[in-house]
Write a structure and sequence with these properties.
Radius of gyration: 10 Å
Shape: globular
Length: 53
């Protein structure tokens, strides 16, 4: 799995601040870096690995 470091850090920071999945998807779409299938898979792996909780 790969993604730009900036996007990775933004993702971690957003969830640390309590963002919901719907809000996260809207943010990715707004920033023009939204790919539904990639981010769904990515987030699932992040939750499974206890990186996000």
């Amino acid at each position: 799995m790969s993604m730009p470091y900036e996007t990775y850090r933004m993702t971690l920071k957003a969830f640390e601040m309590g963002i919901s999945l719907d809000q996260y998807y809207a943010l990715m779409h707004q920033r023009g870096i939204f790919d539904v299938s990639y981010h769904e898979s990515f987030l699932a792996k992040m939750f499974q690995s206890d990186v996000l909780y």
